[in-house]
Design a protein that fits this description.
With about 325 residues, this protein is an alpha/beta fold. The chain contains ten helices and ten strands. It has helices at about 35-45, 55-65, 85-90, 110-120, 130-155, 165-185, 195-205, 205-225, 250-265, 295-310, and strands spanning about 25-30, 50-55, 70-75, 100-105, 125, 185-195, 230-235, 240-245, 280-285, 315-319. The protein has a five-stranded parallel beta sheet, sandwiched between helices. Strands 7-8-6-9-10 form a five-stranded mixed beta sheet, sandwiched between helices. Helix 10 links the parallel strand 9 (about 280-285) and strand 10 (about 315-319). Helix 2 (about 55-65) packs parallel to helix 3 (about 85-90). The longest helix has 24 residues, at about 130-155. The protein is elongated, with a radius of gyration of 26 Å. About 30% of the residues are buried. The structure holds 3'-deoxy-guanosine-5'-triphosphate and magnesium ion (3 copies). One magnesium ion binds near residues 193, 194 and 197. One magnesium ion binds near residues 193, 194, 195 and 237. This is diguanylate cyclase. One of its GO terms (cellular component) is plasma membrane. It catalyses: 2 GTP = 3',3'-c-di-GMP + 2 diphosphate. It holds the Pfam family GGDEF.
Length: about 325
């Protein structure tokens, strides 16, 4: 069924990687041991969506983990693993626990339905099913799911610069830290601060300051090529860069390039003491995470190096 007539928040989703509403068709996994049911449900739901079919619980679980669908339509009575066991398994796995599940079953007593909802299903459809009811309920759940994803992304993106925000950084650094600790890999971190930005605002006005912040953020983001390297807005005119699995030499080269390229952007800054253009100072450090250390200690070191970069004249990387 068409999604075109639905009321929906309009967001410009051309600004990758934060295309806030995915343009990919939604994926629905149908798990039912009766072939006729699978065929009918597939025909009902396939318009503008991708439908994946599983003929029993085991296959359902495997396909759910592999495809991470946006919705699962789950039969209850199946030979082997029942629908109840399938949903328990889905809800106990971090990667699948957030996928909404709708039961579709001929077990239709109030107790059956309550049991299914208690297991974490978002809805319960009785068999024999009415085609229009299946379509309407699926549409509702998918809409909720889209809105939820949209809000989750909005919560992690800085609205001015459209790079990640501090909250995303806090989540990301924990994951990266633990990952590098497990694999005994180095992690490099950097704090970046725009030089004499207060006087930039004084000279050109706050709106121009905002524009300069956007330009600098976008430029740095474009220079980070590997998918796991991230830049986030740390505070006012400060940014943080996380480079997982990156040794000190590589990190120094990347950050030196970034520092130089900002001055080469030639954003006029006539009241800067050290240049005619906007420049940044960077503090950086590399660590192999150890049991006793935390990522906060790395931040502390990096912050001291940033202070040194400022003290030594700005527009430089200190290590
Ligand atoms: P330094 O070289 O020592 O970093 O000097 P600075 O002037 O950049 O340092 P300071 O921390 O004193 O000033 C930071 C300025 O950044 C002050 C604040 O007005 C400006 N700023 C922070 N966030 C924003 C923002 O979102 N938009 C604009 N336009 N300015 C901002
Ligand atoms: Mg069945
Ligand atoms: Mg600052
Ligand atoms: Mg500054």
């Amino acid at each position: 069924s068409s999604l075109e007539n639905e009321p929906f928040i309009m967001i410009d989703d051309t600004k990758d990687p934060f295309s806030l509403i995915g343009s990919e068709p939604e994926k629905i996994l149908i798990v039912d041991d009766a072939k006729d049911n699978r065929t009918m449900l597939c025909e009902l739901l396939m318009s503008q969506r991708k439908v994946i079919l599983a003929k029993d619980g085991a296959q359902g679980l495997a396909l759910a983990t592999k495809h991470l669908p946006d919705l699962i339509l789950l039969d209850v009575m199946m030979p082997g693993i029942t629908g109840h066991q399938v949903i328990r398994s889905l809800k106990s796995d971090e990667s699948t626990m957030h996928i909404p599940v709708i039961f579709i079953s001929s077990k239709i007593s109030a107790d059956d339905e309550k049991y299914g909802l208690d297991l974490g299903a978002v809805d319960y459809i009785s068999k024999p099913f009415h085609p229009a009811i299946v379509q309407a309920r699926v549409k509702n759940v998918l809409r909720e799911q889209r809105n939820k994803k949209l809000l989750e992304k909005l919560a992690l993106v800085d609205s001015l610069t459209e790079i990640y925000n501090r909250r995303f950084y806090e989540l990301d650094i924990r994951k990266v830290w633990n990952g590098c600790k497990r694999e005994n890999k180095a992690i490099s971190l950097a704090l970046l601060d725009i030089d004499y930005f207060k006087s930039y605002n004084d000279e050109y006005g706050h709106l121009s300051g905002d524009e300069a912040l956007r330009l600098v953020a976008k430029h740095i983001k474009n220079q980070l090529k590997r998918p796991h390297d991230i830049i986030a807005r740390y505070g006012g005119e400060e940014f943080v860069i996380v480079l997982p699995d990156t040794n000190a030499d590589d990190a120094k080269r990347i950050l030196t390039d970034i520092c130089q390229s900002i001055e080469q952007l030639k954003i006029p800054h006539e009241s800067s003491v050290i240049s005619h253009y906007v420049t940044i100072s960077i503090g950086g450090a590399t660590m192999i995470p150890k049991h006793e250390a935390s990522h906060e200690e790395l931040v502390k070191i990096v912050d001291e190096y940033l202070y040194q970069a400022k003290a030594q004249g700005r527009n430089r990387v200190c290590w």
